[in-house]
Amino acid sequence: MTDPELKIVLPFWADSFLVEYQNRSFVSDKDKMMLAIELSRLNTEYGTGGPFGAAMFNHSTGKLISIGINLVTSTKSSVAHAEMAAIISAQNILNTYDLSTINGGCELASSTEPCIMCMGAVLWAGITRLLCGANDADARGAGFDEGPKPQNWVQEFEKRGIKVKTGLLREDAAKVLSEYKNNNGIIYNPKR
Amino acid sequence: MTDPELKIVLPFWADSFLVEYQNRSFVSDKDKMMLAIELSRLNTEYGTGGPFGAAMFNHSTGKLISIGINLVTSTKSSVAHAEMAAIISAQNILNTYDLSTINGGCELASSTEPCIMCMGAVLWAGITRLLCGANDADARGAGFDEGPKPQNWVQEFEKRGIKVKTGLLREDAAKVLSEYKNNNGIIYNPKR
User: Fold this and answer.
1) Domains and CATH numbers, chain A
2) Minimum distance, in Å, between the CA of residue A25 and any CA atom of chain B
3) CB atoms < 10 A from the CB of B101, how many?
4) Is the pLDDT at A144 greater than 80, yes or no?
5) CB atoms within 10 A of CB A125
6) Least CB-CB distance to A4: which of B76, B92, B152?
7) What is the mean pLDDT of residues B128-147?
8) Which residues pair with A130 in a beta bridge?
9) Torsions phi, psi of B64, nearest 5?
């Protein structure tokens, strides 16, 4: 048995995306969400994964720290959701398991409200702010199981010091989900 | 930005552990749980991580597929929980994001009921059976936040075709948690 490894190889188009946006400052929540939605859109357009994108920013400077896209099928790992990739990448880059220790704090923009796994990952990563685009119903409408998320999850986040903003550019984000469904994109939930 | 990577380097003692147990068949649920608890105990005794262990088995043959231990501090990744490591490893080894496609099915033994992140990871991995040792209150008693898990999570799992058995060797599993607490083990929840 070799050491377990989740290597999330970003697709070819991510290189030029990063050249364009890395180290740029994103001021408004809307700008941050636009980037996450653009990632979800490119991932489906290029056929490189599921219709989900995420991006991590320094809350104080607005600088882009890391990106994440859904790569479950290409990495052959059910763990490789967009938020997980963005968190793993940010913690790689900043060399810490607790992003709350980073000056200015870290915030995550996710094109869709996190599933129950990513919800937990956000709680443990030390993120101080979460921005969400499409909602749970939009994701379920496209065929994805989001898991038994608690109804009061936003309060549970706030109780732990994590601010949450939902419904940011929801229509734009949900459009990527419905287009993925209409184009018969792979629903990679496990077979039951 | 390089490709994000979660490389879970298993500690030195895992080698001899695997030499001893790999490819062995574990027949009873109790034997499987004993292995997961032994992993949690060794991880704390050697000071290589948090007091949590997990092991993946083929349900039909009882063969050990992969192991996981908590390595949040050494990998500097808040994602590196025991269950995540065992899932990532099993999917590496079996070359699939959906363990439900494996002949005989896959079952995970976890020394403690999964936190909300690992709960989601178990749901998406294609596991057909989950065995748990210590419970939520035991983990919280040792200082770990388990997240806003739904109270009816066992029913939610069964609804998705995943059988759950809780409280297996609970006292042995909980003892590892309380000893970790008594020895002032690191509680790696993010600073709030």
Assistant:
1) 27-181 (3.40.140.10)
2) 16
3) 13
4) yes
5) 30
6) B92
7) 96
8) A108, A164
9) -70, 125
